[in-house]
């Protein structure tokens, strides 16, 4: 027998989306275990595993024993530490290849880096079966028949970002690249920086939010923060103030973990909901004055930026084949740039505007 420690880990961009993309299974071989080939051992121990699936996992180095990949003929030993990475299809949705424009900022035989616009869902799911990034990738990477494919394509979505979050996303083009990148996300070595406009001012210039993130216990379609750690999964967000506009603040957020809606939930948790985040309370005036001109100003900003103000600006990882450090940066989208300019001008003119209304 083996002690099987099953860990499900959310590695979705700042988590984004409601389903986990990868499963990480940890096992410690029992002291009394007799030597047996690892492919036979895993087939017997993992629910739903087949000999073929296990063989593919071993061939693509998705199985580690004592932190090293092994072949299928490896014989397990007592107290071996086994880690199995397994990608999961959160939906069994058929995928329709669609000719959708993709802003590809980098591509080679192993990986693609895409700058995602606002409004594009990454992964097909309930209510979003077409028009997603996956539909566009299916077309771009070769299946242009317009016939539905029976399942989610096998290119590797190792993370994803929300429909209305803009910015950088890495996609693996091979099993080996997918495995390597998945490990980097699990090990929290991927460099990710987000720009967020949030309500309120900060007393400090930088800080860290540590609070578990899990599904809201009453409102099941959203997430919530649990500071005592009795529910949800560990989540850590580091933030740094970039610009202050009195009533709102531009911050840089660095993810140490990647949980669903992590930045949005953590900022709400500390009293700084993202500007115009209709899910977490930022789509109304939370800070500022009672003057009519101010209310109109904020409503104008909401019209320009009809989404939450979050942009995945920086992405860095080790290339799965060359082992070189890769680094990408995305410019702020036009809607966020316009709103920031409006806040800069308002902040400069604010004393005069408020004096006129008094």
UniProtKB/TrEMBL annotation:
Database matches in SUPFAM superfamilies: Alpha-L RNA-binding motif, Pseudouridine synthase
Q: Which PROSITE patterns match?
A: PSI_RLU, S4
Q: Which residues form a coiled coil?
A: none
Q: So what EC number does this one have?
A: 5.4.99.-
Q: Which reaction does it catalyse?
A: a uridine in RNA = a pseudouridine in RNA
Domain Pseudouridine synthase RsuA/RluA-like: start-end pairs: 110-269
Q: Tell me one Pfam family matched here.
A: PseudoU_synth_2
Q: What InterPro entries does the entry give?
A: PsdUridine_synth_cat_dom_sf, PsdUridine_synth_RluA-like_CS, PsdUridine_synth_RluC/D, PsdUridine_synth_RsuA/RluA, RluA_PseudoU_synthase, S4_RNA-bd_sf
UniProt keyword list: Isomerase, RNA-binding
UniProt lists the family membership as follows:
Belongs to the pseudouridine synthase RluA family.
Give the matching PANTHER family.
MITOCHONDRIAL RNA PSEUDOURIDINE SYNTHASE, RIBOSOMAL LARGE SUBUNIT PSEUDOURIDINE SYNTHASE D
Known function: Responsible for synthesis of pseudouridine from uracil.
Q: Please give the name of this protein.
A: Pseudouridine synthase
